[in-house]
Amino acid sequence: MTVLLWCVFAAICAFAFLNGFRDASNSVAAAVRTRALTPSIAVVLAAFFTVVGTLLSTTFGSSLVSAADLNVPDGAAGLAILLTAVLAAGGWGLFCWYRAMPMSSTQAVISGFAGASGASALLGGDGAQGITRMLVGGVLIPLLLTPVIAFGLSFLVVIPLTWLLRNSSSSDVNTIGRLGQSVTTGAVALGHGLQDGQRTAAMLTLALVAGQTATPTGIPFWAQALAAGCLGVGVLCGGWRITHTIAYRLVAIDPLRGMGAQAVSASMLFIGAIALNMPLSTTQAVTSSIVGSGANQRYESVAWRRVVSVVLYWLATPVTCIAAAGVLFLAINPLLGWAG
């Protein structure tokens, strides 16, 4: 049990690092594209606010622990569900990074939970309780609504912004946009920490609960600090392959539209984490917002074929991670007796 618990902890920390590594692009892509911030300054700023967001609030993470505890049985089986879910989500994340495609780690890991829990139930073990609610609330609804809402709001927010600055020179508009992006870049990173950081801390706590070394009474501070550290270091390392896709291959935007897109995506992340206690994909919110603001221009600026490719990866994420986690659980199941 102890060996398996440490393996789960290592996998969660590696997943958090990879999450920060890939999702650094969400915070910095627009600001780097419009030259509002240099890449090095943007990454340091994003890492700092990601850490702050992770440490700032426990409400969202505590709600995740309460919900997910119903789905993870005690003992080796529960730890195996956690391990295979994280490995499946991490493997898919690495593949998407190699392909320079943004994807949702939130939906990947929730889908992994579903696949591993389903495999456990198939073998006659303790399966997931309320897994349908988990998939609908954490994957299906956000997958369908987040891109649409982010795209629509960002498209619309361009209208009042351009009207307010209609009498300003192009130079002044760009200056205002870049100054605004200096703020909104930090806001997106803060939202990233609120969302992804608290989920990582929640998974660490769930591992303790499944390993019967803690009770689900809340997230300890050390779990938050560990999650913050792993995410922050990952952001500092920065996955520039995906940044290049979001910033240069999908759409051309100016500083004003970049500011509007980041403001919309940050607001959605704040509302999801603080008001709704709902896991939202930082990647989907940011990418859709950037495309939405870029689409509201007089000239064609969106590479729609590439956008469709990104959306197909988003749709493939739940199916792939459910299947991969299920297969991984079946593969390691013969070892659970020894691990227990």
Please sum up the structure shown:
The chain is mainly α. 80% of the residues lie in helices and 0% in strands.
Number of strands: 0
- Computed structural class: mainly alpha
Secondary-structure element string: HHHHHHHHHHHHH
Mind describing the biggest β-sheet?
A: none
| Overall average residue pLDDT | 87
Proportion of helical residues? over 70%
The portion of residues forming beta strands comes to under 5%
List the helices and strands and how they pair.
Layout: H1 2-33, H2 39-56, H3 59-68, H4 76-98, H5 105-122, H6 131-164, H7 170-210, H8 221-237, H9 240-249, H10 255-275, H11 282-295, H12 304-332, H13 336-339
Helix pairs in contact: 1-2, 1-4, 1-7, 1-8, 1-9, 1-10, 1-11, 2-7, 2-8, 3-7, 4-5, 4-7, 4-12, 5-6, 5-12, 6-10, 6-11, 7-8, 7-10, 10-11
Account of the 3D structure:
By secondary structure, the protein is mainly alpha-helical. The protein has one domain (1-121, 130-323). It has helices at 2-33, 39-56, 59-68, 76-98, 105-122, 131-164, 170-210, 221-237, 240-249, 255-275, 282-295, 304-332, 336-339. Helix 5 (105-122) packs parallel to helix 12. The longest helix is centred in the middle third of the chain and has 41 residues, at 170-210. The chain is elongated. 56% of the residues are buried. The chain crosses the membrane at residues 40-65, 77-100, 106-123, 135-163, 221-242, 263-280, 311-336. InterPro entries: Phos_transporter.
